[in-house]
Amino acid sequence: MPEDLKKADAVIIGAGVIGSAIAWRLAQANIRTIVIDRGEVGGEASHAAGGMLAPLSEADSAGDFVNLCVAGRAMYADFARELQEASGIDIEYRTEGTLYLALNDHDEEELERRWEWQRTAGLNVKRLNRGCTLKLEPRLNPDLRWALKFPDDHQVNNRSMAAALHQSARSAGAEFITQCEVRRVQIESVSGIKRVTGVLTDQGFIESDVVVIAAGAWSSLLEVENHQVMAGNKIKPVRGQMVAVEMPSPAINHVVYSCRGYLVPRLGGLLIAGSTTESAGFDKRVTAGGINAIIQHAAEIFSGFDQLSISEIWAGLRPRSKDDLPVLGLDPGVGGLLYATGHYRNGILLTPITARVISELVIRGQSSIDLKPFSITRFLRPEAAG
Ligand SMILES: Cc1cc2nc3c(=O)[nH]c(=O)nc-3n(C[C@H](O)[C@H](O)[C@H](O)COP(=O)(O)OP(=O)(O)OC[C@H]3O[C@@H](n4cnc5c(N)ncnc54)[C@H](O)[C@@H]3O)c2cc1C
After folding, report:
1. Are 230 and 304 members of one domain?
2. Percent of the chain with pLDDT over 70
């Protein structure tokens, strides 16, 4: 480990979109930040994602989570502009919106439920009949019954975003160490008060008073010395497989969901179909069954899907906490230890807001948003133990 990388003001474990965005904000505030990744920058879930910024398509009820997602979504237009200025990379922020189709009786019930709670919560959701839906997207299944439109559920190219965050963070002064595994977060206890002293990696020790765990699906594997707060599989991997095909002509322009799958059009001429939701441990293999299911569900949305030429298939691991909510904020028992993990299906959406609140905590000790619902302490309550 070179001498100048042996000490930092803040160390971030994980160079996905979450770790890189936090590093960018900290470096902008002149905090000497080192990001460590055991693989490549943005090489895991951040690479695998679909890039949808879709709280209304994803959330099942009103509450703290959808509020966080909507607040994060509102930051995106400025975030994309700022990233482009800082990195020169266009993250393809697209604002056509998202359609959610009812294709059978079950879907109609589900969409009615969404329509009710979202309207009651004052969210921007529109109800479209079959004709209006097909006018917007003539390539969709002509047998669709009706649809919801979420005009504010947008999308980005997550792979470009990971590259732009890396570039922006480096330009602001953050250092990235790749192919380097963090083995342990080191802690000292003085007069009963615990605080972090740095991280032990397979290339040596890096001293730091601040350590942020942004290790995605692997966060619970990290050993935090003498302190078991992240143990007990609080974050588990959930595999998602994806298929990208060549875009048909004329193109599909909206993100389109059904209750069973989704299509995401990319500017570069690809149409991405997703996804599976599987407990397969840390196994990232693509399976015949997974791809078959995705193609069937995509063909329900757009009946010509199975005739399109496949460009890429892949799988990634979503970091899921026990209650599906992210884990954000300070550790209550160890000074200088922070969590930015468990973003599950919405880590791309939640990147700007996570970077904001975590950097606020590091820089001034408090965040502009109440993070209590997302605190690690919810797993420390007796009823949540186990
Ligand atoms: C198929 C699929 C589709 C998705 N679609 C969407 C979507 O449309 N919209 C959305 O908002 N979200 C989506 N998500 C979720 C989103 O991708 C994740 O929530 C987000 O990428 C999490 O980012 P992260 O930086 O926390 O994790 P990751 O990108 O996984 O990064 C974590 C990093 O930590 C590193 N690491 C782990 N352990 C160590 C260690 N001990 N030492 C050093 N480095 C370590 C890993 O190598 C990795 O690079 C999707 C996910 C999948 C899999």
Report:
1. no
2. 96
Task: Note the pLDDT tens digit of each residue in 78-87.
Answer: 999 999 999 9
Q: How many CB atoms lie within 10 A of CB 341?
A: 32
The answer to whether the CB of 51 is under 6 A from ligand 1 is: yes
Question: Is 294:273 a contact under the CB 8 Å cutoff?
Answer: yes
* pLDDT single digits (tens) 246-279: 998 889 999 999 999 999 999 989 999 999 999 9
Same domain, 241 and 305: yes
Could you read off the pLDDT of 154-182 as tens digits, one per residue?
999 999 999 999 999 999 999 999 999 99
Asked if 284 and 296 sit in the same domain, the reply is yes
Gap from CA of 92 to ligand 1 centroid (Å): 19
Element containing residue 83 per DSSP (H, E): helix 76-87
Q: Has residue 80 been placed in a domain? A: no
Q: Is 326 in the pocket of ligand 1 (CB under 6 A)?
A: no
Question: What's the whole-model pTM score?
Answer: 0.97
Tell which atom from ligand 1 comes closest to the C-alpha of 41. Answer: 49
Residues 16 and 45 in one domain: yes
**CB-ligand 1 contact for 272 (6 Å cutoff):** no
Place of tokens 């892949």: 314
3-state secondary structure of 104: coil
Q: Are residues 245 and 183 in the same domain?
A: no
Q: Are 337 and 214 in contact (CB under 8 A)?
A: no
Our count of domains for the chain comes to: 2
End-to-end CA distance of the chain: 38
Residue of 76, 314, 343, 349 with the most ligand 1 atoms within 8 Å of its CB, for mutation: 343
Residue 106: give the domain boundaries. 98-151+236-319
